[in-house]
UniProtKB/TrEMBL annotation:
<dbReference type="InterPro" id="IPR041581">
    <property type="entry name" value="Glyoxalase_6"/>
</dbReference>
<dbReference type="Pfam" id="PF18029">
    <property type="entry name" value="Glyoxalase_6"/>
</dbReference>
<dbReference type="InterPro" id="IPR037523">
    <property type="entry name" value="VOC_core"/>
</dbReference>
<dbReference type="InterPro" id="IPR029068">
    <property type="entry name" value="Glyas_Bleomycin-R_OHBP_Dase"/>
</dbReference>
<protein>
    <submittedName>
        <fullName>VOC family protein</fullName>
    </submittedName>
</protein>
<feature type="domain" description="VOC">
    <location>
        <begin position="4"/>
        <end position="114"/>
    </location>
</feature>
Length: 115
């Protein structure tokens, strides 16, 4: 069996602004809005979908994005915070260091230095 990830989809009660936020921070583009019920964003790293739901599952999201950068990690995290993300925590394990952030609707994601 051969499989590939076609899209990662996020549930949202208001997917349009969330999709536009992710398109902006990932230097992507909203390519379909489907009357606001399913929004598709293409980025250099892959495709994200944002689908409208009546209520999101409470608690911590079970799947999250791990983003990497070649740039200064603190500056990138600061830029995401300035764009509307919130800081969940800064973590380190050995030489590895990363920031856990949440997007404007509370979906957690991590940013680490690639390498």
């Amino acid at each position: 069996m051969t499989l590939a990830i076609g899209m990662i989809t996020v549930d949202s009660t208001d997917p349009v602004p969330l999709a536009h936020w992710w398109a902006r921070v990932l230097e992507g583009e909203v390519v379909a809005e489907n009357e606001g019920w399913f929004v598709v964003v293409t980025t250099p790293a892959g495709t994200l979908g944002f689908q409208r739901v009546d209520a999101v599952t409470p608690g911590k999201n079970k799947v999250h994005l791990d983003l990497t950068t070649h740039e200064d990690l603190a500056l990138v995290a600061g830029g995401l915070l300035a764009a509307g993300a919130t800081l969940v925590g800064e973590r380190a394990e050995g030489a590895a260091r990363w920031f856990t952030l949440a997007d404007p609707q509370g979906n957690e994601f991590c940013v680490a230095h690639e390498g």
